[in-house]
Protein backbone atom coordinates (compact mmCIF):
# COMPACT_ATOMS: atom_id res chain seq x y z
CA UNK A 1 0.00 0.00 0.00
CA UNK A 2 1.39 3.41 -0.98
CA UNK A 3 -0.34 6.57 0.20
CA UNK A 4 0.03 10.19 -0.91
CA UNK A 5 1.97 11.13 2.23
CA UNK A 6 4.55 8.33 1.85
CA UNK A 7 8.00 9.30 0.69
CA UNK A 8 10.49 7.58 -1.60
CA UNK A 9 14.12 6.78 -0.98
CA UNK A 10 16.66 4.97 -3.08
CA UNK A 11 17.38 1.57 -1.52
CA UNK A 12 20.79 1.15 0.16
CA UNK A 13 23.40 0.47 -2.51
CA UNK A 14 21.31 2.12 -5.24
CA UNK A 15 22.36 5.45 -6.76
CA UNK A 16 21.15 7.79 -9.48
CA UNK A 17 24.11 8.40 -11.80
CA UNK A 18 23.82 10.54 -14.96
CA UNK A 19 20.32 9.42 -15.83
CA UNK A 20 20.88 5.80 -14.86
CA UNK A 21 19.87 3.85 -11.80
CA UNK A 22 22.90 1.88 -10.59
CA UNK A 23 22.64 -1.03 -8.15
CA UNK A 24 25.85 -1.91 -6.33
CA UNK A 25 24.46 -5.24 -5.08
CA UNK A 26 23.35 -6.54 -8.47
CA UNK A 27 26.29 -4.87 -10.18
CA UNK A 28 24.12 -3.40 -12.92
CA UNK A 29 22.54 -0.14 -14.03
CA UNK A 30 19.42 0.76 -15.97
CA UNK A 31 18.67 3.84 -18.10
CA UNK A 32 15.83 6.13 -17.01
CA UNK A 33 13.62 8.32 -19.15
CA UNK A 34 13.28 12.02 -18.23
CA UNK A 35 10.10 11.51 -16.20
CA UNK A 36 11.78 8.66 -14.29
CA UNK A 37 14.68 10.98 -13.43
CA UNK A 38 12.11 13.65 -12.49
CA UNK A 39 10.51 11.32 -9.94
CA UNK A 40 13.74 9.89 -8.53
CA UNK A 41 15.36 13.31 -8.03
CA UNK A 42 12.47 14.07 -5.66
CA UNK A 43 13.18 11.36 -3.11
CA UNK A 44 12.17 12.50 0.35
CA UNK A 45 9.12 14.37 -0.96
CA UNK A 46 5.60 12.99 -0.42
CA UNK A 47 4.31 10.93 -3.33
CA UNK A 48 1.26 13.21 -3.63
CA UNK A 49 3.47 16.26 -4.20
CA UNK A 50 5.58 14.40 -6.80
CA UNK A 51 2.38 13.51 -8.67
CA UNK A 52 1.26 17.15 -8.72
CA UNK A 53 4.68 18.39 -9.84
CA UNK A 54 4.85 15.77 -12.61
CA UNK A 55 1.36 16.71 -13.78
CA UNK A 56 2.35 20.38 -13.92
CA UNK A 57 5.69 19.75 -15.61
CA UNK A 58 4.36 17.41 -18.31
CA UNK A 59 0.83 18.89 -18.65
CA UNK A 60 -0.84 15.66 -17.54
CA UNK A 61 -4.10 15.18 -15.73
CA UNK A 62 -3.74 14.32 -12.03
CA UNK A 63 -5.21 10.88 -12.68
CA UNK A 64 -2.74 10.08 -15.45
CA UNK A 65 0.21 11.43 -13.47
CA UNK A 66 -0.83 9.45 -10.38
CA UNK A 67 -1.17 6.25 -12.40
CA UNK A 68 2.23 6.77 -14.05
CA UNK A 69 4.05 7.59 -10.81
CA UNK A 70 2.47 4.76 -8.85
CA UNK A 71 3.19 2.20 -11.61
CA UNK A 72 6.81 3.38 -11.74
CA UNK A 73 7.22 3.28 -7.96
CA UNK A 74 5.61 -0.17 -7.62
CA UNK A 75 7.86 -1.53 -10.37
CA UNK A 76 11.07 -0.15 -8.85
CA UNK A 77 9.95 -1.21 -5.37
CA UNK A 78 9.31 -4.77 -6.57
CA UNK A 79 12.85 -4.76 -8.01
CA UNK A 80 14.09 -3.62 -4.55
CA UNK A 81 15.57 -0.45 -6.06
CA UNK A 82 13.34 2.01 -4.20
CA UNK A 83 12.07 1.98 -0.63
CA UNK A 84 8.73 3.51 0.30
CA UNK A 85 8.80 5.19 3.68
CA UNK A 86 5.49 5.45 5.45
CA UNK A 87 4.56 8.77 7.00
CA UNK A 88 2.75 9.13 10.30
CA UNK A 89 2.57 6.87 13.33
CA UNK A 90 2.61 3.08 12.75
CA UNK A 91 -0.80 2.70 14.43
CA UNK A 92 -2.38 5.12 11.95
CA UNK A 93 -0.85 3.24 9.01
CA UNK A 94 -2.10 -0.03 10.47
CA UNK A 95 -5.62 1.40 10.69
CA UNK A 96 -5.34 2.61 7.07
CA UNK A 97 -4.20 -0.86 6.04
CA UNK A 98 -7.15 -2.49 7.81
CA UNK A 99 -9.51 0.00 6.18
CA UNK A 100 -8.14 -0.72 2.70
CA UNK A 101 -8.21 -4.48 3.39
CA UNK A 102 -11.89 -4.24 4.29
CA UNK A 103 -12.61 -2.42 1.03
CA UNK A 104 -10.69 -5.02 -1.00
CA UNK A 105 -12.14 -8.01 0.86
CA UNK A 106 -15.19 -8.40 -1.44
CA UNK A 107 -12.78 -8.84 -4.34
CA UNK A 108 -10.84 -11.49 -2.42
CA UNK A 109 -7.69 -9.37 -2.38
CA UNK A 110 -5.46 -7.79 0.21
CA UNK A 111 -3.32 -4.65 -0.16
CA UNK A 112 -0.09 -5.34 -2.03
CA UNK A 113 2.93 -5.66 0.25
CA UNK A 114 5.64 -3.04 -0.05
CA UNK A 115 9.19 -4.32 -0.46
CA UNK A 116 11.84 -2.95 1.86
CA UNK A 117 15.57 -3.29 1.33
CA UNK A 118 18.05 -2.73 4.15
CA UNK A 119 21.81 -2.64 3.97
CA UNK A 120 24.05 -5.39 5.31
CA UNK A 121 27.69 -4.69 6.11
CA UNK A 122 29.60 -7.73 4.88
CA UNK A 123 33.12 -6.42 5.52
CA UNK A 124 33.53 -9.06 8.24
CA UNK A 125 31.56 -12.00 9.57
CA UNK A 126 30.80 -10.14 12.82
CA UNK A 127 29.55 -7.06 10.98
CA UNK A 128 27.47 -9.22 8.63
CA UNK A 129 25.76 -10.98 11.52
CA UNK A 130 25.30 -7.78 13.53
CA UNK A 131 23.95 -5.70 10.65
CA UNK A 132 21.61 -8.52 9.57
CA UNK A 133 20.15 -8.79 13.04
CA UNK A 134 19.86 -5.00 13.27
CA UNK A 135 18.03 -4.95 9.93
CA UNK A 136 15.54 -7.62 10.91
CA UNK A 137 15.02 -7.14 14.66
CA UNK A 138 11.58 -5.56 14.29
CA UNK A 139 10.36 -8.51 12.24
CA UNK A 140 11.90 -10.95 14.74
CA UNK A 141 10.05 -9.23 17.59
CA UNK A 142 6.77 -9.18 15.68
CA UNK A 143 7.03 -12.89 14.82
CA UNK A 144 7.96 -13.75 18.41
CA UNK A 145 5.00 -11.83 19.86
CA UNK A 146 2.56 -13.23 17.28
CA UNK A 147 3.73 -16.79 17.91
CA UNK A 148 3.46 -16.29 21.67
CA UNK A 149 -0.08 -14.95 21.28
CA UNK A 150 -1.13 -17.90 19.12
CA UNK A 151 0.60 -20.49 21.33
CA UNK A 152 -0.98 -19.01 24.44
CA UNK A 153 -4.49 -19.82 23.19
CA UNK A 154 -4.33 -23.61 23.68
CA UNK A 155 -2.69 -23.07 27.08
CA UNK A 156 -5.47 -20.71 28.11
CA UNK A 157 -8.15 -23.13 26.84
CA UNK A 158 -6.51 -25.94 28.80
CA UNK A 159 -6.59 -23.77 31.90
CA UNK A 160 -2.81 -23.66 32.16
CA UNK A 161 -1.42 -20.41 33.48
CA UNK A 162 2.19 -21.29 32.66
CA UNK A 163 3.71 -19.16 29.92
CA UNK A 164 6.70 -21.41 29.46
CA UNK A 165 5.50 -23.09 26.26
CA UNK A 166 4.25 -19.90 24.50
CA UNK A 167 7.38 -18.04 25.58
CA UNK A 168 9.70 -20.80 24.40
CA UNK A 169 7.94 -21.17 21.05
CA UNK A 170 7.77 -17.40 20.53
CA UNK A 171 11.41 -16.76 21.33
CA UNK A 172 12.55 -19.74 19.28
CA UNK A 173 10.51 -18.69 16.25
CA UNK A 174 11.58 -15.04 16.38
CA UNK A 175 15.25 -15.76 16.96
CA UNK A 176 15.23 -18.45 14.30
CA UNK A 177 14.23 -16.02 11.57
CA UNK A 178 16.98 -13.57 12.53
CA UNK A 179 19.73 -16.18 12.90
CA UNK A 180 18.74 -17.81 9.62
CA UNK A 181 19.33 -14.63 7.62
CA UNK A 182 22.39 -13.71 9.68
CA UNK A 183 23.96 -17.09 8.86
CA UNK A 184 23.40 -16.47 5.14
CA UNK A 185 25.02 -13.05 5.49
CA UNK A 186 27.96 -14.46 7.46
CA UNK A 187 29.06 -16.50 4.45
CA UNK A 188 28.76 -13.49 2.16
CA UNK A 189 31.82 -11.75 3.59
CA UNK A 190 33.11 -9.22 1.08
CA UNK A 191 30.08 -9.62 -1.21
CA UNK A 192 27.74 -6.60 -1.59
CA UNK A 193 24.46 -7.72 -0.02
CA UNK A 194 21.17 -6.42 1.32
CA UNK A 195 18.34 -7.79 3.39
CA UNK A 196 14.93 -7.64 1.73
CA UNK A 197 11.51 -8.07 3.31
CA UNK A 198 8.33 -8.29 1.30
CA UNK A 199 5.14 -9.37 3.02
CA UNK A 200 5.93 -12.69 4.70
CA UNK A 201 9.12 -13.16 2.69
CA UNK A 202 12.57 -12.34 4.00
CA UNK A 203 15.69 -12.92 1.93
CA UNK A 204 19.25 -11.81 1.41
CA UNK A 205 19.95 -10.23 -1.97
CA UNK A 206 23.60 -10.54 -2.94
CA UNK A 207 25.98 -9.97 -5.81
CA UNK A 208 26.75 -12.88 -8.12
CA UNK A 209 29.02 -15.53 -6.56
CA UNK A 210 30.28 -18.89 -7.78
CA UNK A 211 27.70 -21.73 -7.84
CA UNK A 212 29.48 -23.65 -5.08
CA UNK A 213 29.56 -20.60 -2.83
CA UNK A 214 25.91 -19.91 -3.60
CA UNK A 215 25.08 -23.43 -2.42
CA UNK A 216 27.06 -22.92 0.76
CA UNK A 217 25.38 -19.58 1.44
CA UNK A 218 21.97 -21.17 0.91
CA UNK A 219 22.74 -24.07 3.25
CA UNK A 220 24.30 -21.88 5.96
CA UNK A 221 20.98 -20.34 7.07
CA UNK A 222 18.94 -23.48 7.78
CA UNK A 223 21.93 -25.53 8.91
CA UNK A 224 23.10 -22.97 11.47
CA UNK A 225 19.64 -22.51 12.96
CA UNK A 226 18.92 -26.25 12.94
CA UNK A 227 22.24 -26.91 14.68
CA UNK A 228 21.41 -24.32 17.31
CA UNK A 229 17.96 -25.84 17.78
CA UNK A 230 19.29 -29.39 18.14
CA UNK A 231 21.82 -28.04 20.64
CA UNK A 232 19.00 -26.52 22.69
CA UNK A 233 17.00 -29.77 22.58
CA UNK A 234 20.06 -31.77 23.70
CA UNK A 235 20.80 -29.23 26.44
CA UNK A 236 17.17 -29.38 27.58
CA UNK A 237 17.40 -33.16 27.68
CA UNK A 238 20.59 -33.11 29.73
CA UNK A 239 19.26 -30.71 32.37
CA UNK A 240 15.70 -32.16 32.09
CA UNK A 241 14.20 -28.76 31.22
CA UNK A 242 11.37 -29.12 28.67
CA UNK A 243 11.17 -25.33 28.26
CA UNK A 244 14.65 -25.24 26.72
CA UNK A 245 13.80 -28.12 24.40
CA UNK A 246 10.54 -26.47 23.38
CA UNK A 247 12.41 -23.27 22.50
CA UNK A 248 14.70 -25.37 20.31
CA UNK A 249 11.87 -26.94 18.27
CA UNK A 250 11.01 -23.87 16.13
CA UNK A 251 14.70 -23.49 15.39
CA UNK A 252 14.95 -27.11 14.27
CA UNK A 253 11.91 -26.54 12.03
CA UNK A 254 14.24 -24.47 9.82
CA UNK A 255 15.63 -27.85 8.70
CA UNK A 256 12.63 -28.03 6.37
CA UNK A 257 14.27 -25.22 4.39
CA UNK A 258 16.97 -27.76 3.47
CA UNK A 259 14.43 -29.68 1.39
CA UNK A 260 13.26 -28.70 -2.07
CA UNK A 261 10.10 -27.36 -0.45
CA UNK A 262 12.19 -24.33 0.52
CA UNK A 263 14.11 -21.89 -1.64
CA UNK A 264 17.40 -22.62 0.13
CA UNK A 265 17.06 -26.35 -0.50
CA UNK A 266 16.29 -25.77 -4.17
CA UNK A 267 19.36 -23.55 -4.56
CA UNK A 268 21.52 -26.14 -2.79
CA UNK A 269 20.21 -28.88 -5.09
CA UNK A 270 20.92 -26.74 -8.15
CA UNK A 271 17.24 -26.38 -9.07
CA UNK B 1 25.97 -36.01 -6.99
CA UNK B 2 22.82 -33.85 -7.09
CA UNK B 3 20.68 -36.85 -6.20
CA UNK B 4 22.93 -37.73 -3.28
CA UNK B 5 22.79 -34.13 -2.08
CA UNK B 6 18.98 -34.08 -2.31
CA UNK B 7 18.76 -37.36 -0.38
CA UNK B 8 21.18 -36.21 2.35
CA UNK B 9 19.47 -32.84 2.78
CA UNK B 10 16.02 -34.44 3.03
CA UNK B 11 17.25 -37.07 5.47
CA UNK B 12 18.98 -34.44 7.60
CA UNK B 13 15.88 -32.24 7.66
CA UNK B 14 13.41 -34.94 8.58
CA UNK B 15 15.82 -36.68 10.95
CA UNK B 16 16.61 -33.49 12.86
CA UNK B 17 12.99 -32.43 13.07
CA UNK B 18 11.81 -35.88 14.16
CA UNK B 19 14.56 -36.09 16.75
CA UNK B 20 13.72 -32.67 18.20
CA UNK B 21 10.00 -33.40 18.43
CA UNK B 22 10.47 -36.88 19.90
CA UNK B 23 13.10 -35.72 22.37
CA UNK B 24 10.86 -32.88 23.56
CA UNK B 25 7.93 -35.27 23.87
CA UNK B 26 10.05 -37.76 25.81
CA UNK B 27 11.38 -35.02 28.02
CA UNK B 28 7.88 -33.80 28.84
CA UNK B 29 6.83 -37.35 29.66
CA UNK B 30 9.91 -37.84 31.81
CA UNK B 31 9.31 -34.56 33.63
CA UNK B 32 5.67 -35.51 34.20
CA UNK B 33 6.62 -38.90 35.60
CA UNK B 34 4.93 -40.77 32.76
CA UNK B 35 6.15 -43.55 30.50
CA UNK B 36 6.04 -43.36 26.72
CA UNK B 37 6.35 -45.87 23.89
CA UNK B 38 6.02 -44.59 20.33
CA UNK B 39 6.59 -46.82 17.31
CA UNK B 40 6.08 -46.88 13.55
CA UNK B 41 4.72 -50.38 13.19
CA UNK B 42 7.52 -52.68 14.32
CA UNK B 43 10.08 -49.85 14.42
CA UNK B 44 10.40 -48.14 17.74
CA UNK B 45 10.70 -44.35 17.65
CA UNK B 46 11.20 -43.44 21.28
CA UNK B 47 10.50 -45.03 24.63
CA UNK B 48 10.57 -43.60 28.12
CA UNK B 49 10.62 -46.35 30.74
CA UNK B 50 11.31 -46.63 34.42
CA UNK B 51 14.15 -48.97 35.31
CA UNK B 52 14.38 -49.20 39.06
CA UNK B 53 14.76 -45.66 40.32
CA UNK B 54 16.01 -44.34 37.01
CA UNK B 55 14.05 -43.13 33.98
CA UNK B 56 15.57 -44.28 30.69
CA UNK B 57 14.84 -42.69 27.30
CA UNK B 58 15.65 -44.82 24.25
CA UNK B 59 15.54 -43.74 20.62
CA UNK B 60 14.80 -46.63 18.29
CA UNK B 61 15.52 -47.43 14.61
CA UNK B 62 12.23 -45.80 13.62
CA UNK B 63 14.02 -42.45 13.79
CA UNK B 64 16.54 -43.58 11.17
CA UNK B 65 13.72 -45.01 9.06
CA UNK B 66 11.92 -41.65 9.18
CA UNK B 67 15.10 -39.89 8.08
CA UNK B 68 15.56 -42.31 5.17
CA UNK B 69 11.94 -41.82 4.10
CA UNK B 70 12.47 -38.04 4.28
CA UNK B 71 15.60 -38.34 2.17
CA UNK B 72 13.83 -40.45 -0.45
CA UNK B 73 10.86 -38.08 -0.53
CA UNK B 74 13.18 -35.12 -1.11
CA UNK B 75 15.04 -37.04 -3.79
CA UNK B 76 11.81 -37.80 -5.63
CA UNK B 77 10.57 -34.20 -5.26
CA UNK B 78 13.91 -32.86 -6.56
CA UNK B 79 13.74 -35.21 -9.56
CA UNK B 80 10.21 -34.09 -10.36
CA UNK B 81 11.14 -30.42 -10.09
CA UNK B 82 14.24 -30.92 -12.23
CA UNK B 83 12.20 -32.74 -14.84
CA UNK B 84 9.55 -30.02 -14.90
CA UNK B 85 12.00 -27.14 -15.03
CA UNK B 86 14.10 -28.74 -17.75
CA UNK B 87 13.73 -27.10 -21.14
CA UNK B 88 12.46 -29.20 -24.03
CA UNK B 89 14.48 -28.74 -27.20
CA UNK B 90 11.48 -29.59 -29.39
CA UNK B 91 9.03 -27.10 -27.89
CA UNK B 92 8.58 -23.39 -27.60
CA UNK B 93 6.13 -21.62 -25.31
Report on this model:
The complex is a heterodimer of chains A (271) and B (93). Helices cover 56% and strands 14% of the residues of chain A. Chain A has 271 residues and is of the alpha+beta class. Chain A has two domains: 7-107, Arc Repressor Mutant, subunit A, CATH 1.10.10; 115-268, no CATH class. In chain A, strand 7 and strand 8 form a beta hairpin. In chain A, 38% of the residues are buried. The mean pLDDT of chain A is 92. Chain B is an alpha+beta fold. Chain B has one domain. A three-stranded antiparallel β-sheet of chain B has the order 1-2-3. Chain B is elongated and about 60 Å long. The two termini of chain B are 31 Å apart. In chain B, 32% of the residues are buried. The model of chain B has no long low-confidence stretch (mean pLDDT 88). Chain A binds chain B through residues 219, 222, 226, 229-230, 233-234, 236-237, 240-242, 245-246, 248-249, 252-253, 255-261, 265-266, 268-271, and chain B through 2, 5-6, 9-10, 12-14, 16-17, 19-21, 23-24, 26-28, 30-31, 57, 70, 74, 77-78, 81-82, 85.
Keywords:
heterodimer; A: 271 residues; alpha+beta; Arc Repressor Mutant, subunit A; 2 domains; 3-stranded antiparallel β-sheet; 9 helices; B: 93 residues
Residue ranges of chain A: pLDDT <50 for 5 or more in a row?
Answer: none
- Helicity range of chain A: 55-70%
The run of helices and strands of chain B is HEEEH
Assembly annotation: heterodimer
Q: Percent of residues of chain B in beta strands? A: 15-25%
Provide the β-strand percentage band of chain A: 5-15%
What is the straight-line distance between the termini of chain B?
Answer: 31 Å
Number of domains of chain B: 1
As laid out across the biggest beta sheet of chain B, the strand order is 1-2-3
Amino acid sequence: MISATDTLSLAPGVALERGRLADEVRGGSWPLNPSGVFVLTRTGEPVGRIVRELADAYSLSDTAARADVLRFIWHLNALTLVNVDGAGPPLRRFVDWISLSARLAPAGAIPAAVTRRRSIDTRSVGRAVGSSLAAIWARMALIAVATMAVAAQPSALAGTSSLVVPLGLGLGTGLGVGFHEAAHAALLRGVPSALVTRGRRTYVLHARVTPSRRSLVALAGPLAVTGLGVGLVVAGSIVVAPAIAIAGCPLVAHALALTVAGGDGRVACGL
Amino acid sequence: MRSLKAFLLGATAVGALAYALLATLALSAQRGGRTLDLALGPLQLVAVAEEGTAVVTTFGPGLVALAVVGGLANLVAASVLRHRSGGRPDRVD
